[in-house]
Write a structure and sequence with these properties.
The chain has about 250 residues and is α+β, with helices and mostly antiparallel strands. The protein has a single domain, classed as Creatine Amidinohydrolase, CATH 3.90.230.10. It has helices at about 10-35, 40-55, 125-140, 150-160; strands spanning about 60, 70-75, 80, 95-105, 110-115, 165, 175, 180-185, 205, 210, 215-220, 225-230, 235, 240-245, 245-250. It has a 5-stranded antiparallel β-sheet. A hairpin with a 6-residue loop joins strand 11 and strand 12 (about 225-230). The longest helix has 23 residues, at about 10-35. It binds 2-amino-4-trifluoromethylsulfanyl-butyric acid and cobalt (II) ion. 2-amino-4-trifluoromethylsulfanyl-butyric acid (MF3) binds near residues 62, 65, 66 and 82.
């Protein structure tokens, strides 16, 4: 399913199922976070995520999607997104690690991401995590009926650039529902008042990806892992959010 075309609006019953799917995603992400410490390989988080999927009787949403071979994306330091779990990639004190994860529950997809520090991290890393997470909160605040996609995009860009950081251009947020990726695209940069008008029933995965340096990325030889070209640190936070007449509902919240 591509990102072009008309958004698929969801009724309140579908939003409740999406809430359940996304709550499971966030529960699993928080369990992964608890397991973060120096000496753990990124593959161990893949194994833990798969085990938690079995226990909760849900299917991982990423495994097999466009040929992606794993359930989890684990992106360390200069890795922006789509980091492949590896037995020889060992976390060390001072690293930052992003977990991006999705499940299918009752035919609907949940998708969320968090970035966490390994032990004590640098002041720049701490500021990068705080900025990216706050950019997501500001964006969600704009996810209201009558606003435009550009209002969400601009809120992210403004918060990030105020800090001297840059938003990644090559990847975007997206609509979500029965498919992981549905229209519309939700860029992390843009102008207020531009783009699609937000309507009740629209469900968006909003996912700022931020570089502490340049926003240029390159894809590694594995065909998936996106890294910053200049090697600078990158962070990623993602929530799936429903737009309703009474305001945004963060579905991936526990
Ligand atoms: N959260 C990511 C996204 O929305 C997950 C996609 S990874 C893939 O694009 F492996 F499934 F492609
Ligand atoms: Co996503």
């Amino acid at each position: 399913m591509g990102l072009k075309g008309h958004p698929i609006l969801k009724n309140s019953k579908e939003i409740e199922i999406l809430r359940k799917a996304n709550a499971i995603v966030m529960e699993i992400l928080l369990t992964l976070k608890e397991a973060v410490r120096p000496g753990v390989s990124t593959f161990e988080f893949e194994e833990l995520a798969l085990e938690l999927c079995e226990r909760k009787r849900v299917k991982p949403a990423f495994k097999g999607y466009r040929g992606y071979p794993y359930a989890l994306c684990v992106s360390v330091n200069e890795e922006v997104v789509h980091g492949m779990p590896r037995k020889d990639k060992i976390l060390k004190e001072g690293d930052i690690v992003s977990f991006d994860f999705g499940v299918v529950y009752d035919g609907y997809v949940g998708d969320a991401a968090i970035t966490v520090g390994v032990g004590k991290i640098s002041e720049e890393a701490r500021r990068l995590l705080e900025t990216t997470e706050e950019a997501l909160r500001f964006a969600i605040e704009k996810a209201r009926v009558g606003n435009k996609i550009g209002d969400i995009s601009h809120a992210i860009q403004r918060r990030v650039e105020r800090e001297g950081f840059n938003v990644i251009r090559d990847f975007v947020g997206h609509g979500i529902g029965r498919s992981l990726h549905e229209p519309p695209e939700v860029p992390n940069y843009g102008k207020p008042g531009r783009g699609l008008r937000l309507e009740p029933g629209l469900v968006l995965a909003i996912e700022p990806m931020v570089s502490a340096g340049s926003y240029e990325v390159v894809i590694l030889n594995d065909g998936w892992t996106a890294v910053t070209r200049d090697g600078s640190l990158s962070a990623h936070f993602e929530h799936s959010v429903a737009i309703t007449p009474s305001g945004p509902i963060i579905l991936s919240q526990v």
